[in-house]
Amino acid sequence: ANKILAGRPENEDALYAVASYSLSSAPGQSLTAANRLIAAMGKKKKPEGMSDSDWERRKTAMLGAGYTFAGVVQGSQNRYADADRNLKAALPLIAGNSTMLSYAYYYLGVSNYQMGKLTADKSKMMTGVQYTDRAVATAGPMQGQASSNSAIMKREMATPGR
Prior knowledge:
With 162 residues, the protein is mostly helical. Helices cover 76% and strands 0% of the residues. The chain has 8 helices and no strands. It has helices spanning 2-7, 12-21, 27-43, 52-76, 80-90, 98-119, 122-137, 143-158. Helix 2 runs antiparallel to helix 3 (27-43) and helix 4 packs antiparallel against helix 5. The longest helix has 25 residues, at 52-76. It is elongated, with a radius of gyration of 17 Å.
């Protein structure tokens, strides 16, 4: 994929591959590729010979993936406001993709809860709990961790002085 990008830096398939496959091993590279994917799909024109509906489906899938990958990296780097922005942009684009929704809801939960804790905003913390509970209810890779987080968040919120 990196060889393709050397000659065609806006190739969405190569950008998707780099963003996806380097999520855990090279998060900086993943974030760069995800941001480039979002930018490339935002200005890319429908390829000749592709139907409007096929193009919209592809564009939606690629943008959704780009926003999700970016938000996941930012959430794992404690860049909560950036993660929140990107993952909220991803949600309408990834509807029906339970794997991506699992990650999006999980990191939206963590990000909103932590931003609420940092600013002593209980309503923001509660929003984090709600997103986390959505991650619990969504079949996917983050379901188990979300379940643990939900219990911890609710216990913390029930503790006086929090």
